[in-house]
Amino acid sequence: MSEMAADDRKRTLVKDLVLAAVMVAAGLAISGMALTELRAAHTAELAQATQPLQSSPPIDQDKTPPAESKPGGERPTTPAPEPAHPDAQAQKEGAKPVLPQAPAEKMAPPIQQK
After folding, report:
1. 64: closest CA among 76, 78, 75?
2. 63 DSSP assignment
3. Closest CA to 101 of 79, 83, 80
4. Are 97 and 85 in contact (CB under 8 A)?
5. What is the pTM of this model?
6. pLDDT tens per residue across span 79-97
7. Cβ pair 10, 2 in contact under 8 A
8. Consecutive 10-residue runs of the chain (114 residues): their mean pLDDT?
9. Which run of H or E residues covers position 41?
């Protein structure tokens, strides 16, 4: 009876090894097809360079030049750019601001200490 059990174990082992080999081969085939597809898709893409930008005419040098940055030094003193708002005359004539007025900040009651 042990001879039959050994044969059954041997058959089961052979079936498992064949199944494992088939699964490994299928995985390699799928990986190979995926890599082939990636390479084919990659070569189809072409990079297109943009044209160089045209240089703009020099700006009037009447304005204050920006402060030079120094390591560990002070922050630049030139004013930061402000958002675009129509001037007072344009507002009187009916021009509306580009962006709506920002909502006021909401204040919550203070947190009670326990």
Report:
1. 78
2. S
3. 83
4. yes
5. 0.34
6. 776 766 667 777 777 766 6
7. no
8. 80 96 98 88 63 65 62 67 70 71 72 80
9. helix 2-44
Q: How far apart are CA 41 and CA 37, in angstroms?
A: 6
Please give the Cα distance from 10 to 3 (Å, whole number): 11
Helix (H) or strand (E) holding 7: helix 2-44
Query: What distance in Å separates the CA atoms of residue 114 and residue 111, rounded to the nearest whole number?
Result: 9
Are 84 and 93 in contact by the 8 Å Cβ rule? The answer is no
CA distance 7 to 17: 15
Q: Which amino acid is at 26?
A: A
* Residue 93 per-residue DSSP state: T
Residues 35, 88: Cα–Cα separation, whole Å:
64
Report which residue type is found at 96.
K
CA distance linking residue 1 with residue 5, whole number of Å? 7
